[in-house]
Specification:
Blueprint lengths: L1 E6 L5 H4 E6 L9 E10 L2 H8 L15 E9 L10 E4 L11 E5 L3 E3 L6 H5 L2 H13 L7 E4 L5 H12 L3 E6 L2 H9 L4 E4 L5 H5 L2 E6 L3 H7 L3 E9 L12 H7 L2 E4 L6 H4 L1 H17 L6 E5 L4 H9 L6 E5 L6
Parallel strand pairs: 8-9, 8-11, 9-10, 11-12, 12-13, 14-15
Antiparallel strand pairs: 1-2, 3-4, 3-6, 3-15, 4-5, 5-7
Helix pairs in contact: 4-5, 4-11
């Protein structure tokens, strides 16, 4: 038997998630690998999965956890080259990674450099890949100004570090002095406490907005954009944004970009995603990327950790360490 975190209905993480004993995974099929889980990164999308509000909506019972680092302990035909290899991967839902083991397509697994910390690896996939693709699709380059909302969150910190590495000027918004300080520590040129001041007036004109918040924040951000500005809609942690008149975008020459990395890119752009991982590993080695793991949790503590994430009581990244996984 193995332990796995399962949701048997939709609702708040603390209400619907429980650690259960389940039979061992069957042997992996052709092109698949089974990974002994060492670390799993938590994300707001895991909260959305529990609530049933994520764009990809697996029905219960399901296991969340879409960022995993661990060691391949079994392989199917065609995947033997990964036997015994430490990897980072995003498993396909509804078979998430929050358990002792997870079986996934070998094409989704990227080998880790020797000695790479699995906790750091588990903090990379969703936040840093999402931030990298948001900056790439918005064509962020040296000398441009980027406004990053929720700058003390996982995606916000990743976007700040990666934008700075591209030579951009970064403005962040966050709630409260402690979170504003986190934004500055990660490279923000200006950090705005949205509890204390109007971010529209404080930010001024910017080239790009990265918005994981949604709601009224999205609508108000449009007025910050310069000519040919770009806004990347990454999520809606603050609720759905109001409808946007396409002609208003036309009149302002604004580009609206939608981005859902975890629901599409690992499968539709697998080769490019692996190339981005290689770039991220190098940025970690150089110190330009510093995944902000603010705390680790056990599998039993994961529902409460997700509740904290949902209530915005966290900064940076929470990673679940799984006993019995790769050291």
């Amino acid at each position: 038997m193995i332990r796995r975190l399962c949701a048997h209905e939709h609702g708040e993480p603390e209400d619907v998630l429980a650690v259960v004993d389940v039979p061992d995974d069957p042997p992996p099929g052709p092109g698949q690998v089974t990974v002994a889980v060492s670390a799993v990164g938590l994300n707001f999308l895991d909260v959305m999965l529990c609530r049933g509000t994520y764009p990809v909506r697996p029905e219960p019972p399901m296991t969340p956890g879409v960022e995993v680092a661990g060691r391949v302990v079994a392989t199917g035909a065609g995947a033997e080259h990964l036997s015994g290899v430490d990897v980072v991967a995003c498993p396909a839902l509804p078979h998430g990674a929050l358990g002792d083991t997870v079986t996934l397509d070998a094409a989704l697994a990227t080998p880790l450099p020797d000695g790479f910390d699995p906790v750091v690896a588990a903090a990379l996939p969703v936040t840093y890949q999402t931030a990298w693709w948001a900056l790439e699709r918005a064509a962020v380059g040296a000398g441009q100004t980027v406004l990053v909302h929720a700058g003390a969150g996982g995606v916000g910190i990743a976007a700040t570090q990666l934008a700075v590495a591209r030579g951009a000027r970064v403005i962040c918004t966050a709630g409260g002095p402690a979170k504003v300080a986190v934004c500055r520590e990660n490279g923000a040129d200006l950090a705005i406490d949205y509890h204390a001041e109007d971010f529209v007036a404080a930010a001024g004109v910017v080239d790009v907005v990265l918005d994981p918040v949604g709601g009224d924040v999205f609508a108000r951000s449009l007025s910050c954009l310069d000519f040919e500005g770009r806004i990347v809609a990454i999520g809606a942690a603050g609720g759905p944004p109001p409808p946007v008149d396409p002609m208003a975008l036309v009149a302002a020459n604004i580009t609206l970009i939608g981005l859902s990395w975890g629901s599409a890119y690992p499968w539709r752009r697998a080769d490019r995603v692996r190339e981005v991982y290689t770039e991220l590993f190098g940025l970690c080695a150089s110190g330009a990327v510093r995944p902000p793991v603010s705390r680790t949790a056990t599998l039993d503590e994961a529902p409460a950790a997700l509740a904290d994430l949902a209530a915005r009581r966290t900064t940076g990244k929470i990673v679940v360490r799984v006993e019995g996984g790769t050291p």
